[in-house]
Specification:
- With 376 residues, the chain is of the alpha/beta class.
- 45% of the residues lie in helices and 14% in strands.
- About 17% of the residues have low confidence.
- The longest helix is centred in the first third of the chain and has 27 residues.
- The protein starts with a helix and ends in a 16-residue tail after the last strand.
- The strands form three sheets. The chain has a five-stranded parallel β-sheet, sandwiched between helices. Strands 1-2 form a two-stranded antiparallel sheet. A two-stranded antiparallel sheet has the order 5-6.
C-alpha cells in the first residue's frame, strides 16, 4: 500500500514538473505561428476580439514605466512574463478541454469549469472574465455603476469630440453595443443574483440623453424586441452576428437620420452552419460547440432610400468589424479602425463625412479617452 502511494506521489510530481519543463524547452526553440498552444489567440485575432491588443499592452507597459514607482513597474513586467508563460504551457488546450468536458459531463451539461466562460441555458455561452474590460457579469448583476464624476467625465469628452469634429465638417455619432448578457437575460443561469437591472451601458445612455446633445445609441431595447424573430448574438461567441449588427445600425439610422428598415426587409446569406465562437475555444469546447451559423448581410438588399453619399470612418472595437460590414450597404465608402490603432492623420487620409465611435458595453468606460482628438 505504501509503495502504491509512493508511486502515485512520484507520478503526480512528475506530471506537474514535466509540463513547465517542456514549456521552457519549447519556448527556447523557434516557434511557428500555427502552434496548437496559440490556437485560441489566433481565433480571437481572426474575429477581431483582440484587435490592437499588443499595442494596448505595450502602451500600458510604457505608462507604468513612466508614471509608476520602479518597483511597481518591475512587478507589472514580471506579471506579464508569468502570464505569457502560463498561456504557452505545453498541452494547455488539451488540459482545458479535458477539465471542461469532465465538469460538463458530471453536471449533466449545466456547468463547465472555466474562469472565463459561463454555461448558460439553451447552449448559450457567456463571457465572465474579469480581465478584459469591465466584467460583463457585473453589468448583468447591476453592481459597480458609474459615479456621477465618471459620467460627467465621459460626457465632457464626447461633447468635446463632437464639437471638434463638427468644426472640421464631420458628423459624429456614438454607439455602445450591449453585452450579450443584457440582451439574452433569459439564458443566464438562475444562480446569478441581480441587484439591479440597470447596467453601465444603460446608465451612460440615459445620462447622455439627459445632459448632452450627442447622438448616443445603446440598442438594447431594439435587440431584445427583435431576438424573438432571429438569433442576434452567437451562442458560442461574445459578439452579435450580422443580423444583430443590422438591428443595431438601424437604431443609429433612426436616431441620426430619421430612417429605419426592418430585419425582414433585407437578406442574409448563411455562409457557415458549424461555426465555433471565441467562447467555445476559450472554454476548450470547440469539438462540442460547433453549433453557430454565420450570416452575411447582402448589401444589395439595403433600402436605397437609406443610402448616404458619404464616407464613413467607423472607429470601434471587435463589434465594429461586424457593424461596419452592414454599413457598407448604406455609405459610399466605409473604413473601420480599432480605437487602439486610430491615428489623427486618418482624418486627412480618409476624409470622412461621418465618424461613428463605438465601444462594447464592457469597454464603455473608455469613452472618457480623447481617442478621436488626441490619438495615442
Amino acid at each position: 500500500m505504501k509503495n502504491t502511494e509512493k508511486w502515485i506521489a512520484i507520478a503526480f510530481l512528475a506530471f506537474i514538473l514535466v509540463i513547465p519543463a517542456v514549456t521552457v524547452v519549447q519556448n527556447l526553440m523557434p516557434q511557428s505561428e500555427e502552434q496548437l498552444t496559440q490556437q485560441e489567440q489566433a481565433i480571437l485575432e481572426n474575429n477581431g476580439t483582440s484587435a490592437g491588443q499588443n499595442r494596448t499592452e505595450e502602451s500600458e507597459t510604457q505608462t507604468a514605466d513612466a508614471t509608476q514607482p520602479a518597483q511597481e513597474a518591475g512587478f507589472i513586467k514580471l506579471q506579464n512574463k508569468i502570464n505569457r508563460f502560463t498561456d504557452s504551457l505545453f498541452g494547455r488546450s488539451q488540459l482545458i478541454s479535458f477539465n471542461t468536458g469532465l465538469t460538463s459531463l458530471l453536471t449533466g451539461g449545466t456547468y463547465i469549469e472555466s474562469t472565463q466562460v459561463l454555461m448558460g441555458k439553451n447552449n448559450m455561452l457567456f463571457y465572465k472574465t474579469e480581465l478584459d474590460g469591465h466584467p460583463p457579469i457585473w453589468d448583468y448583476m447591476g453592481i459597480d455603476h458609474f459615479s456621477n464624476e465618471q459620467l460627467e467625465e465621459i460626457a465632457a469628452n464626447l461633447v468635446a469630440t463632437k464639437a471638434h469634429l463638427e468644426s472640421k465638417g464631420i458628423a459624429f455619432y456614438v454607439m455602445c453595443m450591449p453585452n450579450k448578457e443584457m440582451v439574452y437575460e433569459e439564458n443566464m443561469p438562475d444562480t446569478i443574483a441581480r441587484v439591479s437591472e440597470v447596467s453601465r451601458g444603460r446608465q451612460l445612455a440615459d445620462y447622455m440623453a439627459e445632459h448632452t446633445d450627442v447622438t448616443f445609441v445603446y440598442p438594447k431595447d431594439a435587440l431584445i424586441e427583435k431576438k424573438k424573430d432571429a438569433q442576434l448574438y452567437y451562442l458560442t461567441d461574445t459578439h452579435c452576428n450580422q443580423k444583430g449588427s443590422f438591428v443595431a445600425m438601424q437604431e443609429l439610422f433612426r436616431e441620426a437620420y430619421g430612417t429605419y428598415s426592418k430585419l425582414e426587409d433585407v437578406q442574409f446569406g448563411a455562409d457557415v452552419t458549424d461555426y465555433v465562437g471565441d467562447l467555445a475555444y476559450i472554454a476548450g469546447l470547440a469539438d462540442k460547440f460547433n453549433i453557430d451559423t454565420v450570416y452575411s448581410f447582402e448589401k444589395e438588399s439595403a433600402d436605397k432610400e437609406q443610402y448616404r453619399d458619404e464616407v464613413l470612418l467607423f472607429v470601434g472595437d471587435s463589434f465594429g468589424g461586424f457593424l461596419s460590414v452592414v454599413c457598407k450597404g448604406y455609405y459610399k465608402e466605409v473604413h473601420w479602425e480599432h480605437p487602439d490603432k486610430f491615428e489623427y492623420s486618418m482624418y486627412e487620409e480618409y476624409k470622412p463625412d461621418v465618424v461613428i465611435f463605438e465601444r462594447a458595453e464592457r469597454y464603455c468606460h473608455q469613452f472618457n479617452e480623447p481617442v478621436l482628438i488626441n490619438a495615442y
